[in-house]
Structure formats: structure tokens, C-alpha cells
Amino acid sequence: MMTNKVINMTTIIPVSDLRRKTSDVMKTLREGSDVVYITQHGRPTAVLLDYEQYEALLAELEDLADLASLEEAADEPSRPYEEFLAELETKG
């Protein structure tokens, strides 16, 4: 049996357990552990998470970056679209 400490669906294991029991760690992730923290010499060194959860986090980060860009753009000066088009035609 894998020696680990479970806190709120979070698993913390030493890297030595990861080496010896990779299949068990992967099963822990599939069975619903939010993340698996890997420690080395008692200190956190890595985090493992399910692939779908990883993809969801990346999508959320992208959405947040888009939102931040929109909020930044809200402070930029604006002008009517027709004026912008007219300027393009005069430059072209």
C-alpha cells in the first residue's frame, strides 16, 4: 500500500513512492484526487494532475488572459469605425 497523506482530495507523496508506484499514483488521479504533490527531501517539487483537469486549467488561463486584454483595451481611446476606414483609404 502506498504511504501517503490525503488532505481534501489532495495527495502528497515522496518522489521515491512515485518511482516505485507510478501505477498507483495514476490510479489515485483517475479516482478523483485533485492533484498529487510530489515531495523530495520533505519539500514540494512537482504537482501531477489529470490530463483533462490540466486542459481545463489551460483553457481557464486563456480565458482570464483574454479578459485581462479586454479590460486593458477598455481604457484605450476609441473612435468611430467609419473614421478609421476613411483613414485607411487615404493611406492606401
CATH topology of the largest domain: YefM-like fold
Q: What is the arithmetic mean of pLDDT?
A: 85
- The CATH class of the largest domain is Alpha Beta
Secondary-structure class: alpha+beta
Strand order of the largest sheet: 1-2-3-4
Secondary-structure element pattern, one letter each: EEHHEEHH
Question: Mind telling me which CATH architecture of the largest domain this is?
Answer: 3-Layer(aba) Sandwich
**How many DSSP E strands?**
4
Beta content comes to: 15-25%
Amount of helix = 40-55%
Shape: rod-shaped
Structural domain tally: 2
Separation of the first and last Cα atoms: 73 Å
How would you characterize the largest beta sheet?
4 strands, mixed
Rounded Rg: 24 Å
- pLDDT < 50 runs, ≥5 residues: none
Number of helical elements: 4
Present the secondary structure layout.
Blueprint: E1 5-7, E2 10-14, H1 15-20, H2 22-30, E3 35-40, E4 43-48, H3 51-74, H4 81-91
Parallel strand pairs: 2-3
Antiparallel strand pairs: 1-2, 3-4
Describe the structure.
54% of the residues lie in helices and 22% in strands. The protein has 92 residues and is an alpha+beta fold. The model has no long low-confidence stretch (mean pLDDT 85). The protein folds into 2 domains: 5-49, YefM-like fold; 52-91. A hairpin with a 2-residue loop joins strand 1 and strand 2 (10-14). The protein contains 4 helices and 4 strands, in the order E-E-H-H-E-E-H-H. It has helices spanning 15-20, 22-30, 51-74, 81-91, and strands at 5-7, 10-14, 35-40, 43-48. A 4-stranded mixed beta sheet has the order 1-2-3-4.
